[in-house]
Design goal:
Blueprint: H1 3-22, E1 33-35, E2 48-50, E3 118-121, E4 125-131, E5 145-148, H2 160-163, E6 167-171, E7 187-193, E8 201-212, E9 215-226, H3 242-245
Parallel strand pairs: 3-9
Antiparallel strand pairs: 1-2, 4-7, 5-6, 5-8, 8-9
Bound molecules: 2-acetamido-2-deoxy-beta-D-glucopyranose (2 copies).
Biased composition (Basic and acidic residues): 89-102
Keywords: Signal
Signal peptide: 1-24
Length: 247
């Protein structure tokens, strides 16, 4: 190989690396993360476990945490400001991402090679986890992650401008369990409360991260809100009935 050619190859490799860095963008990796120990909450695999995933999330692909951006199709979806399609359909977008359209029935996006649908009760705390993808570092501004959820179950996904009026939480993007030396695979996350007025039913939920001004990435899932169980213990023989009501 000539010296000039070698230089070119090195330059091309450096460029490819820069592009790969620039394209390292995030997505919701788990949408029902539960901590193992409430006194030691964190986002690393040793700190918790996932119980719910976004639509059509390829759980059986065995891709290591934070690597689905190198999968085909990419998991990260960057909205195109021309249309701001709420959830990736695999076609629209600056970076189209993987298909996260609402399925009919909704359950078609879950089970088998996909993850389980998230569920909870009104008032429950839900936690979401995402990979830092080199953007939870000091010199980057934290514009936040917005969680949107409609006030009642919808028959189709709301448009982005409507979801903007349905924000139920703003999370810090940089709330991470740092892995020293690996700002790409560092796991991050945040928790929000299912609003206490949400009636039982299946709701769409959107995770929307602003990386740069008006540069947005989204992940979408369905959340089955179960009826809050009125915890009225069954009366046990010998227990005075009025103990149940606390009177
Ligand atoms: C994680 O690293 C970032 C900088 O990369 C720093 O701002 C943040 O405080 C660190 N978080 C923890 C919990 O150490
Ligand atoms: C930040 O992460 C910690 C776990 O490391 C979690 O306990 C906490 O709830 C998170 N904060 C927010 C605002 O979501």
């Amino acid at each position: 190989m000539s010296a000039v050619r070698t230089k070119f190859v090195i330059l091309a490799a450096a460029l490819a690396f820069l592009v790969a860095m620039a394209e390292a963008h995030s997505w919701a990796d788990c949408v029902d993360w539960r901590f193992k120990d409430p006194k030691k909450e964190g986002w690393s695999t040793k700190d918790g476990e996932c119980f719910g995933w976004a639509r059509k999330f390829p759980v059986t692909s065995k891709t290591p945490f934070g690597d689905l951006d190198s999968a085909s199709p990419n998991r990260h979806y960057q909205q195109n400001p021309k249309d701001f399609t709420s959830c990736s359909d695999g076609k629209h977008g600056r970076e189209p991402g993987a298909d996260e359209t609402r399925q009919n029935p909704i359950s078609k996006a879950y089970g088998g090679r996909y993850g389980t649908m998230a569920s909870g009760k009104a008032g429950d705390m839900m936690c979401v986890r995402w990979p830092a993808k080199n953007h939870a570092v000091k010199n980057e501004k934290d514009r936040g992650v917005f969680i949107s959820m409609p006030p009642s179950p919808t028959t189709s996904d709301p448009k982005q401008k409507d979801l903007d009026d349905m924000v139920i939480a703003k999370l810090s993007y940089k709330n991470c369990s740092n892995i020293s030396g690996d700002t790409d695979h560092t796991p991050c996350g945040g928790c929000f409360k299912i609003p206490s007025d949400r009636k039982p039913g299946t709701y769409m939920v959107q995770w929307r991260w602003e990386l740069n001004d008006n540069e947005w990435y989204t992940s979408c899932w369905d959340l089955k809100v179960d009826a809050a169980t009125k915890t009225k213990p069954k009366s046990k023989a010998g227990c005075p009935a009025n103990l149940e009501t606390g009177l």
